[in-house]
Amino acid sequence: MLSELEEIIAYKQSADQPDRQATMRKTWMKRLQGCQKDVEVWQRILQVRTLVLKPEEAPQMWIKFANLCRKSDRMVLAEKTIESLLSPPSMDKGHRSREQTGLKAPPDVVYAHLKFLWANGAQEESLGYLRQFSNKVARDLQAENEHPRNPSKQRNEQLIRLLARCYFKLGEWQVEMNVNWGSQLVPDILHCYILATRYDPGWYKAWHTWALANIEVLHYLDSQIESGTKGIHSSTVAEHAVAAIEGLFESILLRNQDALQDTLRLLTLWFKFGQHDNVSNAMSQGFEKVGIDTWLHVIPQIIARIQTPNALIRRRIRSVLITIGKHHPQALIYPLTVASKSSSETRAAAAMGIMEEMRDHSRMIVEQALVVSHEIIRIAILWHEQWHEGLEEASRLYFTEKNPEGMIAVLEPLHAKLEAGPQTARETSFAQVFGRELADAREACRRYRIRGDTSELDKAWDIYYAVFKKIEKQLPQLTTLDLQYVSPILLQTRNLSLAVPGTYQSGREIVTILEFAQKLTVIASKQRPRRFSLKGSDHREYQYLLKGHEDLRQDERVMQLFSLVNNLLSVDTNSYMRRLHIQRYPVIPLAPNAGLLGYVQGSDTLHVLVRDYRESRKVLLNIEYRLMLQMAPDYENLTLLQKVEVFEYALENTTGQDLYRVLWLKSQNSEHWLERRVSYTRSLAVNSMVGHILGLGDRHPSNILVERSTGKVINIDFGDCFEIATLRDKFPETVPFRLTRMLTHAMEVGGIEGSFRNTCEITMKVLRDNKESLMAVLEAFVYDPLISWRLMQTNEGKRIDDNTTELARAAAHPQGPGRRKLRADENDIFGGWCNPFSEGSFY
């Protein structure tokens, strides 16, 4: 403020230097725009500047202030500000007519006044005046162009820009007043938006909104076609699709850094309407406009459609991927490797075809990627684990479902792999111990298929059961893996040209793989993930969690959503002030059933924090459960009200302050504790709101991390999205997010009534204000056949193969049946305490 006063004195002293004064006014304007978007802050600054500048001498500053007041719901102050700009100032505002206002006041002020009237509730009146005002400005511009009197290029440019805003508001206000996209006003609305783009071709918002309006019309036309309405021509649909595509390409050109949602919408339109020649031509023209980097963030969605039935779209997808491969082979190679291992022959063949094209210019990268991914997958699921899992599934098919053919089909690939011969010391050991027995069991199954004698299957299962029990005893002893025994090829692989997984970014130096760590730690859980590390060419160690038996492609898409949410939070004033964001981590699928997850350093799961705290104080880990059983040994047979009574008894006899005390005890001082508590509360609120929108379930204590230094909450494991956890047979999750007493006790004195509620409201407001962008990303889940199939679980819990027929059916019916198999960690209501990551956090 003192600096401003000094500048005001200098401004006053420069009365005979108008150029210097103009420069100072520009500086003040830039400084104002960089200030915090707060009414009080702006008001103090502008009041000081009124010492040398009247409002009518610097109208742009005061117009922006009036708009800020209006958006902050300070309507009285907004009205006073606008009134101070209207001319002549001597005229009493009570006797000033709208016509006089429109004639006397500067056009920018009139426009601001009309927006104020609209916000104040006079919608019909504002719309009418805006239409008249737009026509008048357009006529003035036309007359000026035909008969130039006082040529002022800057003034003309300002009027053209203002006219674009007027037409945009005309369209926007009509949409707000008439939400039906089948009304007769739609052509006028679209015309207003296209006029806005013509008057200001460099305005992102105009192109973006025009594209969205056409997409809304397409949705309406689709609904009409589905309901059987006749008279809707395909040419009409294609016309709006082309308009939407052109608008989205222009939007991407103007805002390339934050184009994820627009790019995803573009792909959705392309895959849905790409069979039309006009749409295909529009896409071809658009591909030539935008840079190849545009497609880097949506490579998973493009590859998901690599085997689409439409030949025209399929050829274009191949062309786009080949182009990406030429410019960014490191970005494309891992997703292509996943597709090449698909169970769908056409999908795998399409991926391999593109990889062959990449060999022409990036042979070393392709060959290294195939070797590395193959070996990492070998480590992720050893033969012991493959047979353990296969025998479990086969027994379910045979004994529960009475399906011997299904049982044989599950075990045959494992037999074939065993017959092909071992390639590592660990596989050789397995073949020596179990090879003869499993060969005998296979022969028994073959005899059954020839003769139909069920006694042969009984003999086979005697052998299978004995093998299963031996493997089950051996698995817990596999706590560490040495590369020389499980993958000697990976141990010898050094100084690769392949980028470290999850690190490639366009325009930055590529960090390649230098070598792999010799030992891997096996985490004692059902899925038995491995802690895996490698050294990069920058000599840093990169740690991952190597997961087998699990498809990580959905987690990869969730990270895309989190990236968008972080962008939206960063541009909102309230959330930016509170540094709200969601912690992300790399997710790199390597196969349909294996992949790598980035390791979040310096964090622990809630389970580990509570376990360590209770063990240090000699408190039983499951004390609440013990108390419930003490009061009611037959808990499962009680009625609902009785169960609630038992549950409340357990709560009354425990404090639930474990996490609160952990945060306090692990803080360096009271200041650090306060910072961690605020960070914990805010991050929990953001994760809760975004998780609610995503329909995220399965939030047991081992799926929530807390950073040691900051207290920040991090969610992991996004397998249960879109409220799939509500469809469980046992213990369905009906709550929107986890907010148990242990979490609330760790907050402030007021619990959820404080920072938590405030942050939740800010986050939800940002999500609602940007619902169109979020829907673009969420719709990509629905239309992505490789993701939607995860929601398609049969009653027996069998997963659908990712072949073309099944994927098409899954994409057409993304909701799927209403039941699915209960996972192992869901069988017990206290399954969250059976920590699958008991050694720490590995995400």
TrEMBL record:
Annotated PI3K/PI4K catalytic domain residues: 516-830
* Transferase recorded as keyword: yes
Transferase as UniProt keyword: yes
- Where in this chain does the entry annotate a coiled-coil region? none
Catalytic activity annotation: L-seryl-[protein] + ATP = O-phospho-L-seryl-[protein] + ADP + H(+); L-threonyl-[protein] + ATP = O-phospho-L-threonyl-[protein] + ADP + H(+)
Q: Which GO terms describe its biological process?
A: negative regulation of macroautophagy; TORC1 signaling
Q: Which CDD domains match?
A: PIKKc_TOR
Q: Which SMART domains match?
A: PI3Kc (SM00146), Rapamycin_bind (SM01345)
Q: What is its EC number?
A: 2.7.11.1
This entry's Gene Ontology molecular function terms read: ATP binding; protein serine/threonine kinase activity; protein-containing complex binding
- State the similarity comment: Belongs to the PI3/PI4-kinase family.
What's the name of the protein?
A: non-specific serine/threonine protein kinase
Provenance organism:
Moniliophthora roreri (Frosty pod rot fungus)
Traced from the root, the source organism's taxonomic lineage reads: Eukaryota, Fungi, Dikarya, Basidiomycota, Agaricomycotina
